[in-house]
Amino acid sequence: MKALIIGASGQVGGNLASLCVRRKIEVYPTSRVGQGFVYLDLADPASIAAAFEKSRPDLVLLCSAMTYVDGCESDPALARKINAAGPALVADECRRAGAKLVYFSTEYVFDGKSGPYSEEDPVNPVSVYGLTKLEGERAALALENSLAVRTTVVYSHNPASKNFIMQLINSYRSGAKMRVPSDQLSNPTYAPDLAAATLALVEKGASGIYNVVGPDWLNRYDFALKACAAFGFDPAFLEPRLTSELGQAAARPLIAGLKTDKLARELGRGLPPAEESLRKIASIIKQYE
Ligand SMILES: NC(=O)c1ccc[n+]([C@@H]2O[C@H](COP(=O)([O-])OP(=O)(O)OC[C@H]3O[C@@H](n4cnc5c(N)ncnc54)[C@H](OP(=O)(O)O)[C@@H]3O)[C@@H](O)[C@H]2O)c1
Description:
Elements: E1 2-6, H1 11-22, E2 26-31, E3 38-39, H2 45-55, E4 59-62, H3 69-74, H4 76-97, E5 100-106, H5 128-141, E6 147-151, E7 154-155, H6 164-174, E8 178-181, E9 185-186, E10 189-190, H7 191-203, E11 208-211, E12 218-219, H8 220-231, E13 238-241, H9 261-267, H10 274-288
Parallel strand pairs: 1-2, 1-4, 2-3, 4-5, 5-6, 6-11, 7-10, 8-13
Antiparallel strand pairs: 9-12
NADP nicotinamide-adenine-dinucleotide phosphate (NAP) binds at residues 7, 9-13, 31-34, 40-43, 63-67, 82, 104, 106, 133, 151-154, 161.
């Protein structure tokens, strides 16, 4: 099998690429800037066509996005180009190539008034990021047999990433205070578990929307406390704040999070609890101390 991994330089794409290599899947990883990657810019249609021509994939894992939520708010045209128009072009190429498409979506398609949400709940994004990701999801799902994986608060130990756990580790080490929202409820999701569950869904031939998130439904401050306990950090550097106090450009869904009953039915299991992955990260941290 040949897999084109769009956005393999990112957190989710990188984990998928490692897993595919371990499973002997032939991988074509893309980036706009990284060395050793196939060049692909979702804002550049010719580069999308060229990457398909080069890889002739059976499977396309579309992980790329403009993920800077506040940046999307200040440049909606660019956000729409990357998060919505680009995925529509990728779906067209998949249709021509007969390739299976997996699109990574987000809990930000919801307004956060009554989470956690199932796959069937009505969407209502409150940010440009959420709206453009929803448009991308719809373009992907218009392709027969495609899979949309909705996820949230993805974390891993990856010094190149700005994920929440890396921000926490870096703040603690630099002695900086870290303001953490105490009113955003969600399901933190360990990137290697997300990658494994996604490939398991592909192997089962799943299509349509699946929520793939960790089982812990908690606010960001409580997640930070859990991480500090696992890592042996004194949590005094954490400053709990209401989202309204953070002065962010884009609105956030507050009572969010995703239900995973459908995933558990399909795979016979959900994702492991956060304690388990935080313990793994703690042992990686200790190796570097
Ligand atoms: N991280 C989360 O908490 C989270 C939550 C919900 C949903 N998601 C979704 O999951 C997916 C993966 O997220 P992630 O955490 O892996 O993101 P990430 O670490 O920020 O990586 C983003 C990826 O997108 C690529 N990219 C950015 N602009 C691009 C463009 N114009 N054309 C092509 N590629 C571009 C980047 O590659 P280069 O810069 O190397 O080109 C990078 O590989 C995204 O679709 C995101 O919306 C993530």
